[in-house]
Amino acid sequence: MRIGAHVRDSADPIGSAETFGVDLVQLFLTDPQKWNKLEPHPQGEDLKSGSIDVVVHSSYVLNVASLNNRIRIPSRKAVIEQSAAAAEIGAIGLVVHGGHVRDGEDTTKGVENWRKLFERQQDVGGFGVPIFIENTAGGDFAMARHFDDIARLWDAVGEFGAGFCLDTCHAWAGGEELVGVVDRIKAITGRIDLVHLNNSRDEFGSARDRHANLADGTIDADVLVAVAEAAGAPVILETPADGLAEDVRFLKSL
Fold first, then answer.
1. Using alpha carbons only, how large is the chain's radius of gyration in Å?
2. Are 60 and 97 in contact (CB under 8 A)?
3. Which CATH class is domain 3-253?
C-alpha cells in the first residue's frame, strides 16, 4: 500500500513528503477556490523525475455537471488544462469532484454533461492524465453522492476509462455504509484508483464534509483501515494538519 498525504504547501511537496515520510503526495496546482491561470510548478522537473508519486486535486470551483454555461464551460476547460499540467509534473491522476446541478434541475442532464466532456476529449486524444471522479458528501442533486447516482454516472462515462476516487468521509456523510463499501463500489465502477482516507467530524448521513483525524472522528478507525486494505489502491490522507503526522505513523505501523 502506498501511503500519502495532501500537502498544504503546494510549492514544496517534496519537502512535505520528506517531513511526513510518505511516498505519495496530493496537491493543488492553483488556488482551489478561484479560477486563476495555471503557472509552471517550481518543483515540476524534480517531481516528474523523482521517486515521489503525485496526485493533483482539481480546483473546488469546477463543476462539470452544471447546467449553467458560465460554470460548465470554464469547468471543462479547467479540467483539460489541469490534467495537462498534472502530466507535466508526472502525476498519476487528476481528482475531480462529481459536481451537481441546482435544486429542481434534471440530474440526467448533469450526467450527460460529464459524458460530453469525455466524448469531446477522446476525439482530440484524451486527457493528460487519468481523471479520478470523487464521490461527494452532500446535495440532493449531486452526481456522485449516493451510489445509485454513481452507477448512473458510470453508465455514461465508464467506457471512456474514467477512474474513481473513494473518499471515506464523503461516503459516510453522504449516507453510505463503509462496511463492504469497496465491493459495492467496484461492482459499479469496476475499479478504485485512489482512496481519500478521512474520518468525519459529523454523524452518519450528515451531508457535511468535515474531515477528522483517523482516531478522532465518528467513524471507527478499524473500519477505515479495512477500507484501505480492501481497496488495494494508493491512500491519501486529507486529515487535519495537527494530527496528520500521527495518522501517517498509524497507517505505516500496520
1. 17
2. yes
3. alpha beta
User: Domain residues of the chain, as ranges?
Assistant: 3-253
170, amino acid identity = H
Rounded CA separation 86/92 (Å): 8
Q: Yes or no: say if 135 and 99 are a contact pair by the CB < 8 Å rule.
A: no
Tell me the whole-structure pTM to 2 decimals: 0.97
Which residues have a Cβ under 8 Å from the Cβ of 222 and sit 6 or more positions away? none
Read off the pLDDT of residues 183-227 as tens digits, 9 standing for 90 and up.
Answer: 999 999 999 999 999 999 999 999 999 999 999 999 999 999 999
Residue-wise pLDDT tens digits, 112-150: 999 999 999 999 999 999 999 999 999 999 999 999 999
> Do 237 and 210 touch, CB atoms closer than 8 A?
no
What letter represents residue 164's amino acid? F
